[in-house]
Model the fold of this input.
Amino acid sequence: MRRPLVAGNWKMYGTCASIKQLLNELTEQDLPDDVDMAVFPGLIYLQAVDALLAGSGIALGAQDCAVQLEEGAMTGETSALQLKDIGCSAVLVGHSERRQLQDETDGVICRKFIAAQAAGLTPILCVGESLAERQAGQAVAKVQQQIDAVLLELGVDVFNNAVIAYEPIWAIGSGLTATPEQAQEIHAQIRAHVAKYSATVAQGLRILYGGSVKAANAAELFAQVDIDGGLVGGASLNAKEFSAICRAAGN
Ligand code: PEP
Done:
């Protein structure tokens, strides 16, 4: 039985004041105890958020890490070890906005995945197809290619301590959500693909859905057998919405 995970990606949103208010409101909500919850604030707010989360049971994650594990001359970068040092337990790798805006390649993402695990962080590997790829019938192939960039390089066992987030690019921040059936189809294909290498790893692997998840559609999505929670962008900036999504992931 996989324990659900709901992760809130705050992207480049927030101020000291708004983040404090959001967390105050969030910790006052009815939060489920059978769901893992995590928030991923912008880098400069990580330490403040870590302090505000104390005792809440909500984990802290970062939105990115450097390819290099050890400290060094890499202006503007933050290493996975530094993220671990300030209290993070997870990191997003390969979010589509970074793939698109920062030209992150599968090779770079694999190196970040390695760095994250070496530092003791859980990488959340984000994969997903564009609208053109979906319309061309290439969604499954695209997602498999992004997973294979890690799986074939590092071996299937690395997914014992990792999470995959399926995020169709056309559904991110667009208000367009994949239907539960569309999402389940890709999640099942991802699990079947990993199972070709290890049925045990595939069975234990948490696969999150991301793309305009909100309180109104979360329960239907999370009811699908291969959807183990969500990676939530916009709706994670609203305490009531986010807590309702977390509750929808529980029993
Ligand atoms: C995301 O940023 O990972 C995401 C899924 O965003 P949204 O929920 O706003 O579509």
